[in-house]
Structures are given as C-alpha cells and as structure tokens.
C-alpha cells in the first residue's frame, strides 16, 4: 500500500470518462469536389427523407405548414425541379439536395419538450455541408434559402448563439448574389422568389435582433429592394401576408434603432417615437377585418407589430425627461390596452394545426407578460395572474411546435 494512500486513509478512486473519446472524421480536401458533394447530399436525402412518394410527402408537409407563413421557396419552381431531377441520370445538384434537407428539418417538431436526437444530428450535418459549400466558394439562391430555413430552425428551438450568428451571415450570403438589388429582367417567377428571399433575410435578421435586445446589426436605415414599389402596393392593393410581414419587420427595425441605437438627447423631444407609434397604429388596424381581437397566434406580421409596439411603449413609459408626464401616462394606458387585447385574443380557440404555427409568435407574448409583471401600473396594482394566464396558455400551445416557447413560458 502506498504511503499516499496510508496518509489519506482513503480508497483509491479515479474519475473515468463515461464514454471513451472517439476520433471524428475530418474531410480530406482532395475529396471535396462538386461530384462527390452532389453524390453525398443526394444519398443523404434518400436515407433521411426518402425517395419517390416519401420525398413528395415531405415536400407537401413543408408547403402545407411552414410555407403558409414564410414562403421563401417557390412551390411551383421547387416541384418543377424535383420532377426534372427524378428523370435525369446525373446526380442531383448539391444546392437542391441541401434545400430539400432543410425543408425536412424545419418541419421537425419537439418530442417531450425537446428536439429529438435525430433532428439534432440532421441539423449538425446540414450546418457542416453549408460550411463545406462556403469553403468551396459555392453560393446560390437555393443555398441562401437553405441558410434561412436553418436559421428558422435555430430560432424556433433556441439554438443560441447560432441563430444570431447565422442571421448576419444570411445577409452577407444574399448580398453576394445581389439579392438586395435584384431587378425584374430575369423573369417574373424567379424575380418574385428572389424578392421573397431578400425579404426573408431581413425579417429573420430583425427578429433575431429583437430577441437579443439590439438594433439590427446590418443595413441600418437602408431601404429594402424596391421599397417605393412595396409601399405603393401596400397602400393601393390588398397585400399578401408575406408583404405585411416584411412591412412589420421594417417597422420593427425603426423601433429597435430608436430604442437601442438612438442617444437619449436625440429622442428627448419624443417626435421620432410619436411618428413610429403613428405608423404602427395605422398598420395594425389592417389586421382587424371586423375582429376586434384577432387570435394572437393567427398572424406573424401581427405578432411582430405587437412586439414593436410593446418595445416602443415600454420605452415611453420609462422616460424620465422633465415635463414628459403626458408621454408616460399615454404610454402606460396604451400598454394596458395592448396587454388586455392580447389576453382577450388568447381566450379564442387556437389554430388547429400546430405544425403551421409561426416561429415569430413567442416573443410578443413573453414581452407582454414581462411588462405586466414588472410594471404594476399596467396590471392595475393588483394580482397580475388573470392577465398572465392567457399568455401562459398560448406559450404552452406554442411549445408543441417550437422549443423556444418553453424557454419563454418559464417566466
């Protein structure tokens, strides 16, 4: 028996690793060529998603759910290429296979409140393929679409800081293709899809900035592609749900810049804040359509607009500039009204298909609850639980689709 053991009078014990370390495979640069990558990604689609009918069923699920609130992929163009690659003997292009994998990934739902291991493995695999394509100098519209869907998955399942990093990278990838200045010279279908991709990039970047409590990192104050045309469309015709989401995102950008990137002196006169509130109020009236209290889970653009409104009003209610009592009083009253509006909407039956719930819904519910809890003026200096209960119920419903909702519902 060793002297050390006699002195300590203890049994020798060593902490062994629960699992022996294994060497992870590292790709050889000589193997990274377009032919091998096309073949590898095609096999990944076959083994994970399937072939023939299974592939069409997976695409159908995507277009029936995620596509309804985030049409970043043209359904017509996707099915046309799917039909084309199935009759060819050449390997499927790597960017199309990557997009197919991302469409399947973003449809994965939590099991017992967490992302299943198979979905996490697919997520890591796709991230690796995106990095490999980037290292090879490959970029395309489909790769940018894949990046966006990957970021949606990260946002929805609270994979941080990956979501924050990915959102900024998406902007650069899109700009490298000129999507921020795309013109109609390339054909209407491709133009519309490219325009939606750029809108999607901006929407995701805005929402990630909101969740991180920061002004948009990229393109501050710059107008989106064809901004004058889009504003005219919103004013003169019934806009699509996605155009309204893009507009809500632009208003959110203004709010985030006002709240997080504007000095106290510059916003002390309150003019900018009032103008932002006017724009938000005018825009939010377009969601009523005869319903005084639309369901809180019914519309992504409505949810983002409410987040923007809550951010603006919370700032106004905390203003300590002398002589701004009226501003504080008005902000608190509107906050009360908005919190109650959300609560009343939560008493209506939620949408039937959980799989079609948007990733942009949880934040405004959490924000409304936090405002109610932290400001007794909003809750009426009484027990806030009656106001909070509908919000908890809505977040609990969202947990079935997005893990991030469960992080928010822990308030």
Describe what this molecule looks like in 3D.
This protein is mainly alpha-helical and 411 residues long. The chain has two domains: 31-211, no CATH class; 262-347 and 355-408, no CATH class. It is built from 19 helices and no strands. It has helices at residues 3-8, 34-48, 53-64, 66-69, 75-87, 94-105, 117-135, 141-156, 162-176, 188-211, 227-236, 241-260, 271-284, 300-317, 325-345, 362-374, 376-379, 385-398, 403-408. Helix 12 packs parallel to helix 14 and helix 14 (300-317) packs parallel to helix 16 (362-374). It starts with a helix and ends with a helix.
Compact overview of the structure:
The chain is mainly α.
Strand content: under 5%
The coarse overall form would be globular
- Tell me roughly what share of residues is in helical segments: 55-70%
The unreliable regions are: 220-229
Average of pLDDT: 84
Oligomeric category: single chain
In whole angstroms, the N-to-C terminal distance is 56 Å
Q: Any idea how many domains?
A: 2
Gyration radius (Cα, Å) is 25 Å
Structural class computed from helices and strand pairing: mainly alpha
Number of strands: 0
What is the count of helical runs?
19
Write the H/E string, N to C: HHHHHHHHHHHHHHHHHHH
Mind summarizing the main beta sheet?
Answer: none
């Amino acid at each position: 028996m060793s002297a050390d053991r006699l002195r300590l009078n203890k049994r020798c014990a060593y902490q062994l690793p629960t699992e022996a370390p294994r060497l992870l495979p590292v790709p050889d640069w000589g193997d990274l060529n377009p032919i091998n990558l096309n073949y590898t990604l095609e096999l990944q689609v076959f083994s994970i998603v399937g072939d023939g009918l299974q592939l069409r069923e997976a695409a159908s699920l995507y277009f029936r759910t995620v596509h309804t609130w985030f049409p970043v992929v043209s359904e017509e163009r996707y099915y046309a290429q799917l039909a084309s690659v199935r009759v060819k003997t050449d390997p499927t292009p790597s960017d199309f296979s990557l997009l197919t994998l991302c469409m399947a990934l973003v449809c994965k739902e939590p099991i017992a409140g967490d992302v299943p291991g198979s979905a996490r493995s697919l997520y890591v695999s796709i991230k690796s393929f995106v990095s490999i394509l980037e290292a090879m100098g490959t970029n395309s519209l489909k790769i940018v679409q894949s990046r966006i869907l990957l970021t949606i998955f990260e946002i929805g399942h609270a994979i941080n800081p990956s979501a924050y990093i990915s959102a900024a990278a998406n902007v650069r990838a899109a700009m490298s293709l000129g999507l921020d200045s795309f013109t109609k010279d390339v054909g209407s279908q491709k133009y519309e899809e490219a325009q939606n991709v750029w809108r999607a990039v901006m929407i995701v970047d805005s929402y990630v900035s909101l969740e991180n409590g920061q002004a948009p990192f990229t393109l501050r104050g710059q107008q989106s592609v064809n901004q004058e045309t889009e504003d005219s469309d919103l004013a003169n015709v019934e806009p699509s749900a996605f155009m309204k989401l893009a507009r809500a995102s632009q208003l959110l950008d203004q709010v985030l810049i006002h709240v997080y990137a504007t000095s106290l002196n510059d916003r002390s006169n309150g003019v900018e804040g009032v103008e932002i509130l006017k724009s938000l109020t005018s825009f939010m009236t377009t969601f009523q359509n005869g319903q005084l209290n639309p369901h809180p889970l019914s519309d992504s653009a409505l949810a983002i607009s409410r987040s923007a409104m809550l951010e603006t009003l919370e700032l106004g209610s905390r203003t300590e500039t002398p002589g701004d009592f009226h501003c504080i009083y008005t902000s608190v009253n509107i906050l009360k009204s908005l919190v109650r509006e959300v609560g009343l909407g939560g008493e209506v039956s939620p949408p039937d298909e959980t799989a079609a719930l948007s990733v942009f819904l949880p934040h405004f519910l959490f924000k409304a609850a936090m405002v109610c809890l932290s400001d007794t003026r909003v809750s009426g200096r009484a027990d806030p639980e009656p106001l909070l209960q509908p919000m908890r119920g809505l977040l609990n419903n969202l947990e079935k689709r997005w893990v991030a909702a469960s992080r928010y519902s822990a308030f």
